[in-house]
Design brief:
8-stranded antiparallel β-barrel; TIM Barrel; 486 residues; binds zinc ion; 12 helices; alpha/beta; 18 strands; 8-stranded parallel β-sheet
């Protein structure tokens, strides 16, 4: 169980905060997310995250406090995005019920923070009270395919639900669905289990049977139970689904993985505290999704080998021949010294099966496929490194080793420098295990030196005398890189 929304930094818990947190973990709560609400409590929220392994937070300014969303608050939020335990932008949104801040001020703070979420690739935690139309209109305008997040304490109608689902948002329910007079049963029922999350909104909105008292994360089970009743499934199923949804949306480590690498992957040291104090007042750009990471993974390609032949003995004898569809396999290790620059080192191995398949047309020719092994060092210049899909141009050097098995050619074993150039695009997929980057590219490899040979038995080259052959390789190539979290 994950309590995806609990203000346990609130004064209401000053007397017994630690016991309250222990009670939650004792009741099977695996993680608690604290959405920040006002700038002068940001530090308190962060220090709770540092103190407890399974406490995470969102950074943002609540609509009640929209008047406090100034440049300094924005800088703090931006700086905090680099801490692994700050997993969302929130709590943000609109609240026309209390109207503590003018509507246009609320809207400005909401919009600006949605833009920060997109820029720093964080999900958003959205508060909406009596402001359905404006919240949904702004979300529609800002969605552009990149926003993810949750409408917390969902209490709106079926149309808002449908729009939210269409916009790819998750829906989180809290204590009010357990109330006798709740009219939310149909809404809960209409929310697919793949999008539901649970929360307490502590210290407010305590569920039955604690209604009217101070709420705390240990009570989140009552919300899970109510959803199970409405969906007519077991509470275990609801717990499993809501936990999975929350871990996926907020990028929390899966439990098993968490146990294994959690300590190393999500350290919060005292040092962070110091850094944060120092950096608090200046705007620091969030780390690039690629920069300072090392990734690795496999490559596959289909290699077309193109030879240009020029007769040295007979004037005007020129021609090309090619061998296409040759499977090529390899491995890459990538390192990004700058966010727009990726070095890729690797190996590709190709067997010229298509030449072998033509062996009967090549008298006296191959009994084994030609084999090409290329070690490459390529630099990719990335045009838009912070995009979901990034485009690049690439160039580099190769070390090529080729073995040509034809019995009637003079060069059978050759090693030489070669060059590569290419272009393509890559997709950035953040996961809880790190970043997965599929790369599709079209690469050309050029040999640096030409071979001179006679091709005595192959028509028409048998009449050409000495033939100079220059070779290049065309490889549409797919690489999947994994950048693990360090
Ligand atoms: Zn709220
Ligand atoms: Zn809240």
């Amino acid at each position: 169980m994950i309590d995806t929304h609990a203000h346990i930094d609130a004064d209401a818990f000053d007397e017994d905060r630690e016991e309250m947190i222990r009670r939650a973990f004792d009741k099977g709560v695996e993680a608690i997310i604290i959405p920040a609400i006002e700038p002068n409590r940001f530090e308190g929220v962060l220090s709770l995250c540092k103190e407890f392994d399974e406490i995470y937070c969102g950074m943002g300014v609540h609509p009640h406090n929209a008047n406090d969303f100034d440049q300094q608050a924005e800088s703090f939020i931006v700086n905090s995005m680099q801490f692994p335990k700050v997993i969302a932008v929130g709590e943000i949104g609109l609240d026309y019920y209390y109207d503590f801040a003018p509507k246009d001020v609320q809207k400005h703070a909401f919009r600006r923070q949605l833009q920060l979420a997109k820029e720093y690739r964080k999900p958003v935690i959205i508060h909406n009270r009596e402001s359905d139309d404006d919240v949904m209109e702004i979300l529609k305008e800002e969605q552009q395919g990149e926003l993810t997040g949750v409408l917390h304490c969902f209490s709106s109608n079926i149309h808002v639900l449908q729009t939210a689902l269409d916009l790819n948002f998750h829906i989180s329910f809290t204590g009010n669905i357990t109330y006798k007079k709740s009219i939310l049963d149909d809404i809960v029922k209409a929310t697919p289990l793949s999008r539901i999350m649970i929360e307490t909104d502590s210290p407010y909105i305590a569920p039955v049977p604690h209604r009217g008292k101070r709420n705390e994360p240990a009570f989140v089970q009552f919300i899970a139970q109510k959803i199970a009743d409405i969906h007519q499934v077991t509470i275990e199923e609801i717990i499993a689904m809501t936990t999975r949804n929350a871990r996926t949306l907020f990028g929390l480590p899966l439990l098993m993985i968490g146990l294994i690498i959690g300590l190393s992957a999500f350290p919060m040291h005292a040092q962070d505290e110091r850094e944060e104090e120092e950096e608090q007042t200046e705007i620091v750009k969030a780390p690039s999704p690629y920069a300072r990471f090392i990734g690795f993974g496999p490559s596959v390609a289909t290699n077309t080998i193109v030879e240009t032949l020029t007769s040295l003995d007979v004037n005007e004898k020129r021609g090309t021949r090619s061998w296409d569809g040759n499977p090529s396999f390899g491995l890459s290790v990538a390192y990004n010294p700058l966010e727009f620059l990726m070095f890729d080192m690797g190996l590709m191995h190709t067997r010229n099966n298509s030449k072998l398949n033509n062996a009967n047309k090549l008298p006296g020719s191959p009994t084994d496929p030609d084999v090409y092994t290329v070690a490459h060092l390529t630099a990719r210049a990335i045009a838009n490194p912070r995009g979901k899909v990034s485009f690049f141009a690439a160039a580099g050097i190769n070390y090529l080793s080729k073995r040509v098995y034809a019995t009637n050619v003079e060069f059978t074993d050759d090693k030489q420098l070669a060059f590569n150039a290419g272009a393509g695009f890559m997709v950035n997929i953040p996961t809880s295990y790190g970043i997965i980057i599929p790369i599709a590219e079209w690469r050309l490899d050029f040999e640096s030196k030409n071979n001179v040979t006679k091709i005595p038995n192959v028509d028409p080259y048998n009449t050409w005398g000495n033939v100079e052959i220059s070779t290049f390789y065309s490889l549409p190539k797919l690489t999947i890189l994994w950048y693990p979290k360090f």
